[in-house]
Specification:
The structure is a homodimer of 157-residue chains. With 157 residues, chain A is α+β, with helices and mostly antiparallel strands. Helix content of chain A is 45%, strand content 16%. In chain A, the strands form 2 sheets. A 3-stranded mixed sheet of chain A has the order 4-3-5. In chain A, helix 3 crosses helix 4. Chain A binds chain B through residues 73, 79-88, 100-103, 109, 111, 113, 115-116, 119-122, 124, 127-143, 146, and chain B through 73, 79-88, 100-103, 109, 111, 113, 115-116, 119-122, 124, 127-143, 146. Strand 5 (130-141) of chain A pairs antiparallel with strand 5 of chain B. Chain A binds a DNA duplex (25 and 25 nucleotides) through residues 23-27, 29-30, 45-47, 59-64, 66-68, 86-88.
DNA sequence: ATACGTGCAAAGCGTTTGCATTTCT
DNA sequence: AGAAATGCAAACGCTTTGCACGTAT
């Protein structure tokens, strides 16, 4: 899954356009970080993005990664994913899609489903809340964790 | 909102039952932590729960809070919430309900909606994923953050 | 030329772990 | 008595911040 080649190109173009419009410097670090996220099919942490970018920019610093991932989110060219853990995770996908969230290991997998996409959202204006986006999170236990669980059960018998 | 008095009582009872069944010690710390979460209507961090519990148990330690909140989640008497931030948040509610997630300040508010509750979930057996639960997350910007944004805009004019 | 971004190092938080001691069953 | 939990302190990992220097517009 992940995003396709066309979408990837469009997103980079949009990024450069937004930089120009906002007068924000389009540095090589910023661009490389965006590409690193776009090239992933999972929901990487800042650390994972750093590892990936180091191949292209040797001396890039941890602080730059954190600062810029946040900038890219604000620009709307990537998003943050919601997860039950204690480490921030980013997502290349900005379109409507949904998540399988493992409550055991905190992993997240994408799931696409037209029925979920066409959900009718409730009115949130009473909360003063402006909805921009939504995700359905199917919470439970992933394949790996279920396997580990059954191993544990066998051992204790 | 939050949970009602009856639900609160039932949950504590269920907790004690689960302790007995599993032969898990039902310590005063454990019980106090559960009560502290049940008494909150928001989605507290471990630190917030610690603060609340200190009133009853002076010398309770940070480690005990973290360890036991995790235990309570495993027992299924509280849950973890999914959020875009870097701090783990707990939730007194274990029934199906939904969230308004602010992507600016990472705050979470509950929202109840029958239409969302009756959502038809896709089949996840192909992923080896066992669904136990679901949440719809309406992502966007909360009232407070929108206010701050408009103030900022005014200043820059 | 100026504003903004970067790298570095240190600080700041939240969470986890090892170990001696206490408590629950 | 024995297993498990607690408290404490240190370690750990992720994120943020201050500052000197470099770079994009």
């Amino acid at each position: 899954m992940g995003i396709g080649a066309r979408e990837r190109r469009d997103r980079l173009e949009r990024f450069e356009e937004l930089c120009r419009e906002a007068g924000v410097p389009c540095t090589i670090q910023r661009r490389a970080l965006l590409e690193a996220v776009l090239d992933r099919e999972d929901h990487p942490t800042a650390h994972q993005v750093l590892e990936a970018v180091r191949a292209r920019i040797r001396g890039i610093s941890r602080a730059t990664v954190h600062r810029n991932l946040e900038t890219l989110v604000e620009m709307g060219v990537i998003t943050k994913t919601c997860h039950p853990g204690g480490v921030i995770r980013y997502d290349a996908r900005i379109d409507i899609h949904h998540h399988l969230v493992c409550l055991r290991c905190n992993s997240i997998a994408d799931i696409d489903d037209e029925n979920l996409d066409s959900l009718e959202l409730p009115d949130t204006s009473a909360f003063g809340f402006k909805v921009s986006d939504f995700r359905v999170q199917l919470r439970g236990v992933c394949r790996e964790c279920r396997r580990k669980d059954s191993k544990k059960r066998n051992r204790s018998k």
